[in-house]
Amino acid sequence: MSELFEFTVPVLVVGGGACGCIAALAAAKAGADVLLIEQDERPMGSTGMSQGLICAAGTKAQAALGIEDSAHTYFDDIMAKTKGQTDPVLARAIADHAGPTVDWMVEALDMPWDLDKGFRPAYGNSTYRVHGWHGHSGQDMVDLLHRRLDDNGVDVMTGAKLVDVHSDDEGRVLGVTIERPDGSREDVGCDTLILACGGFAANHAMVAENMPDVAIARNNGHEGSQGTGIRVGEKLGAAFGDMASYQGYAMLTEPQGLPVPPGVPVAGGILVNIEGKRFTDETADIAGMVHPVLQQPGDYVWVIYDDRIEAEVDYIPEIIELNKLNAPRFANSVEELADVLGLPHDALAATLADAHDAQARAEPDAQGRIWNQDLPPAPRFRALKVVGAIFHTQGGLQIDGQAQVLRPDGTPLPNLFAGGGAARSVSGPAHWGYLPAMGLATAVTFGRLAGEAAARLALARETA
């Protein structure tokens, strides 16, 4: 069947986001020739719409700041957050390899990732372990990764959409068909294939089938997340896992379409509905909070915070951009805040008083939130109008600890690897298992593992 293909590459990577770029760079540094294809003319994907943050343990950045953390602690946090219902093999792979992957990005790729001390331990992370590029976004990460691809001589083909995969009777991938924007098609052979082409959050039919509880939620993921990797895996006989899992988000600003960073509620921000009432513990579940938001009267709620909280998060690109857009509403009293937001005065005053009283008594408030040393909002108030959304899916192709795709019987497909949105993550069977910054943690970690494993397999075939 080799005559079908115009040319053949040892490692073919589909997807130009964080997972695909890291996979391609890892394979190239392992000595393999690599081609990366990306459907968009300018690579973006889910990575480009993220904050560019990675959850990793045991890094040199943590050690430099005296933060004690380990793969063992990270693994325990993952299993606790997912109630023991995630794949322990994948959880172990993330716990063991995310930290070394971040260190490798910094040292081998000269990427300026550091520990983000502004992202406090919360939502399942028991210590400071969120890493990022201070003051930069996910799109900055994508752009920098593509510069590193160029630096390392990795061939990149943009405007190239995967439309078909070709295999033999044993499920070995022989090559793919790609389509250009003008409708023309090319057939490219490969020794190994890495699927890093996103999840299916933008495929409304797949969301409704697998996650009907968020079928009405806004999609704030990339429109290219149409389940391409899922369809390829299905054709090749792959197994799937946790297809009902996703990262929901309760704080997508309306109409700006920018997420309010988790640091806002962690530092004391609250959510109130159009009746002026709180309805959830804002610190309990970063992904699952989307459900109580979707259940509120009307189609939006308000995030209320203050100048003190703003000072803790003012370095985050989304906050900077929201301020540039004059998105926050301001008020110097509870009465003025109620007027500005169109909320009942008495209800809003009672809501804020309950939170302040609970904090002063060191007792849980009416929503079960324990305030500790954090303070609820006080004048000068700030507020942002938000809606519930889905950011990205967390289920997909079943992989092993080296990111090789498995069949339903647990045997590996011969030369197929996956990571990022195309693969099963470690968030368990539903929304409640998601840890902050886990999306990019799985992307870069499984991307690196996939790239190295694919390179080993391709190089072994060359020398056989």
Question: How is this structure best described in words?
Answer:
This protein is of the alpha/beta class and 464 residues long. 34% of the residues lie in helices and 21% in strands. The chain contains 15 helices and 19 strands. The strands form four sheets. Strands 1, 2, 6, 7, 8, 9, 18 and 19 form an eight-stranded mixed sheet that branches. Strands 10, 12, 13, 14, 15 and 16 form a six-stranded mixed sheet that branches. Strand 8 and strand 9 form a beta hairpin. It starts with 6 loop residues before the first strand and ends with a helix. The mean pLDDT is 95.
Keywords, separated by commas or semicolons:
464 residues, alpha/beta, FAD/NAD(P)-binding domain, Flavocytochrome C3, Chain A, domain 1, 2 domains, eight-stranded mixed β-sheet, six-stranded mixed β-sheet, 15 helices, 19 strands, 34% helix, elongated
Short précis:
With 464 residues, the chain is α/β, with parallel strands linked by helices. The protein is 34% helix and 21% strand.
